[in-house]
Amino acid sequence: MIYVIATTPMKPENKDDFIKGHKVCTVETLKEKGCLSYDGNVSVNNPNQYVVVERWETREDLNAHGRAPHMKVWREYSAQMKTAPTVIEIISDGKVEKL
Predict the structure, then answer these.
(1) What range(s) does the ABM domain occupy (predicted)?
(2) pLDDT tens digits for 18-64?
(3) pLDDT tier at 99, thresholds 50, 70, 90
(4) DSSP state, residue 38
(5) 3-class DSSP state for residue 68?
(6) Nearest to 43 by CA among 64, 60, 66, 18
(7) Of 61, 18, 15, which is closest to residue 38 (Cα–Cα)?
(8) Cα–Cα distance list, 11 to 46, 51, 77 (Å)
């Protein structure tokens, strides 16, 4: 099993649109092969930070997710709503990768 934690700093003025857009992305992601869970929430410590916690059956499923058409749409849509790039941590078999 693969766990992913993706943290994105949002521009305060775009927070509501960012969250609405991510909900659309979530609906499509949950339909993907190997997606066990995919949940996004505003951080309890920072109201302008969005945290997505994901679980995938395999690394191949996660890789396919990154290439999914709705992810391309999401990346383009959300690009101007961030104050910095998303930090992605991939956790598997006791190993953590930070992208």
Answers:
(1) 2-90
(2) 999 999 999 999 999 999 999 999 999 999 999 999 999 999 999 99
(3) low
(4) E
(5) coil
(6) 18
(7) 61
(8) 12, 14, 13
